[in-house]
Write a structure and sequence with these properties.
Bound molecules: NADP nicotinamide-adenine-dinucleotide phosphate
Oligomer: single chain
Distance between the termini: 23 Å
Radius of gyration: 20 Å
CATH topology of the largest domain: Rossmann fold
Helix content: 25-40%
Shape: globular
Order of helices and strands: EEEHEEEEHHEHEHEHEHEHEHEHE
Largest sheet: 7 strands, mixed
Number of strands: 15
Low-confidence stretches: 1-6
CATH superfamily of the largest domain: NAD(P)-binding Rossmann-like Domain
CATH architecture of the largest domain: 3-Layer(aba) Sandwich
CATH class of the largest domain: Alpha Beta
């Protein structure tokens, strides 16, 4: 940052004067972020929109200490500067990155361990839809909940960014995938993406559907972002020794359940967030994902589902669409 008399470079970014509805987001100028020795500077071409951005905009999900105050948990673009301690990256390479914030801007700096190379087959707009949801699903379903090859997975919100990534990664592991979604059309699209069973939660009981689909055994893993209202049925959907991973609380945070359920079936409940993890942990998640799935991404066996691309100065429209759950897959902002 420049002192008095020194020009401080600025970049276009979505700014928020004070927390509020979609109208508080305005494109303006933010200071160019400072590059640390372990960082990459990326000229952002596109940024993914995530449900958490809607909470942050309203002041309900503050960035972790040290993170950019700007919105944006993922981006893709060209590397334009490489920190002195970074090896393996060069200016001019195409990168997609998991961010603790700052993606709704023309430039970001990010720890090199949080960046992945963009496969040739993907545009920047597609690549910007990869890091947050694919890495979250990889972390939670594979690393934390250890979904076995050929195991059973229940995912709520099959048409969400998270859901569309989960269906594909789990199918790549030959799992049997059951999803919930809020319309017949979204259910159809989940099936077309590879889900084995899709339950319209508005008119069908997902626990009954799980029992039917698994001959009463239950699934090995539930990936849930609904929280309280689904807790009991989620636990009842699990097989003996099953794992419920809770990554969101869209339906509420307080629930009362009989703990006997956990004992009788020897269940585990895991709560997890990705954003606040230290850089080294994120780097380990990125490496694990690349080892297992980079080839799938490169040859198209898995691919981000991009619902729409919206210009940066229409970020409010993107948030409105996400709030109304109009989308299937990801909403992406075109930044530059
Ligand atoms: N903990 C972490 O590290 C982490 C990381 C990333 C995301 N997340 C969380 O994961 C969730 C999904 O994120 P996203 O960005 O993928 O969001 P998204 O694309 O906006 O998807 C959320 C979807 O959930 C569906 N939904 C709403 N109520 C539902 C219900 N009762 N049952 C089943 N589905 C329901 C909605 O679609 P329909 O109702 O139309 O089907 C909605 O589109 C959010 O809660 C987010 O905070 C957590």
């Amino acid at each position: 940052m420049g002192g008095p008399g020194l020009a401080c470079a600025a970049v276009r970014a979505v700014l928020i004067d004070q927390p509020g509805d979609e109208s508080v987001m305005k494109v303006g100028e933010a200071p160019e972020p400072e590059l640390g020795p372990g960082d990459l500077r990326i000229r952002v071409a596109a940024a993914g929109v995530n449900r958490a951005d809607l909470l942050q905009r309203q002041g309900l999900y503050p960035p972790p200490p040290g993170a950019s105050p700007l919105l944006g948990l993922e981006c893709a673009g060209e590397v334009v500067e490489v920190g002195s301690a970074v090896s393996g990256w060069r200016p001019g390479e195409r990168a997609m990155a998991l961010l603790a914030g700052g993606g709704y801007a023309e430039q970001v700096v990010v720890d090199a361990g949080s960046a992945l190379r963009v496969p040739e087959a993907l545009s920047f707009e597609q690549a910007a839809a990869v890091p947050e949801v694919f890495l979250t699903v990889f972390l939670n379903v594979f690393q934390l909940a250890a979904l076995p090859d050929g195991g059973g997975l229940l995912v709520h919100g099959g048409g969400s960014g998270i859901g569309t990534a989960a269906i594909q990664l789990a199918k790549a592991a030959s799992a049997r995938v059951i999803v919930t979604a809020g319309s017949a059309e979204k259910c159809e699209r989940c099936l077309a993406l590879g889900a084995d069973v899709a339950v319209n939660y508005r008119d069908e009981d997902f626990l009954e559907a799980v029992k039917k689909a698994t001959d009463g055994r239950g699934v090995d893993v539930v990936l849930d972002s609904i929280g309280a209202p689904y807790l009991e049925a989620n636990l009842k959907s699990l097989a003996v020794g099953g794992r419920l991973v809770l990554i969101g609380l869209m339906g509420g945070a307080k629930a009362e359940i009989g703990l006997g359920l956990l004992l009788a079936k020897r269940l585990s409940v895991i709560g997890s967030t990705l954003r606040a993890r230290p850089a080294e942990e994120k780097a380990a998640i990125v490496r694990g994902f690349e080892e297992r799935f980079a080839a799938h991404l490169a040859d198209g066996r898995i691919a981000p589902v991009v619902d729409r691309v919206v210009p940066l100065d229409a970020a409010g429209d993107a948030h409105r669409a996400m709030k109304a759950s109009e989308h299937f897959g990801k909403i992406v902002l075109r930044v530059s």
